[in-house]
């Protein structure tokens, strides 16, 4: 018997976390991070995922004056994508090697993956 799966594609970050099991974040037509809904919302690792979560408006008590985070720069031209990491031009953590070599999706275990050259402990800081 096949397992039923639902796929929800959304440009909105405020998807219903109660009904979603896993989230994949894409940037410039590449998956940059994937994990459980709780991991992705409460502990995003990739700099783009962090930027998305920081730009979410959370309707909670006392958050009315909270300033949202903006992601600087513009997305790359996908007709001629950059050689290295597609987010490197906008990333505050980018190193020279990010712009020159392709970055693979790294399996971190427990269903979690990220496309970044930084070690996980640095991504968490």
Supply database-style keywords.
single chain; 125 residues; alpha+beta; four-stranded antiparallel β-sheet; 4 helices; 4 strands; 19% helix; 16% strand
Helix and strand composition category: alpha+beta
Measured as a percent range, the helix fraction is 10-25%
Measured distance between first and last alpha carbons: 43 Å
Strand content: 15-25%
Mean pLDDT: 83
Helix-strand pattern: EEHHHEEH
Report the biggest beta sheet as strand number plus sense, adding barrel if it closes: 4 strands, antiparallel
Alpha-carbon Rg, integer: 15 Å
Low-confidence stretches: none
Shape: globular
Strand order of the largest sheet: 1-2-4-3
Count the DSSP helices: 4
- Tally of strands: 4
What does this structure look like?
The chain has a domain at 22-59 and 103-124. It has helices spanning 37-42, 47-54, 96-100, 120-124, and strands at residues 22-27, 30-36, 106-109, 112-114. 21% of the residues are buried. It has a four-stranded antiparallel beta sheet with strand order 1-2-4-3. The radius of gyration is 15 Å and the shape is globular. Strand 3 (106-109) and strand 4 (112-114) form a beta hairpin. By secondary structure, it is of the alpha+beta class.
Helix/strand layout:
Elements: E1 22-27, E2 30-36, H1 37-42, H2 47-54, H3 96-100, E3 106-109, E4 112-114, H4 120-124
Antiparallel strand pairs: 1-2, 2-4, 3-4
Please sum up the structure shown.
By secondary structure, the protein is α+β, with helices and mostly antiparallel strands. The chain has 4 helices and 4 strands.
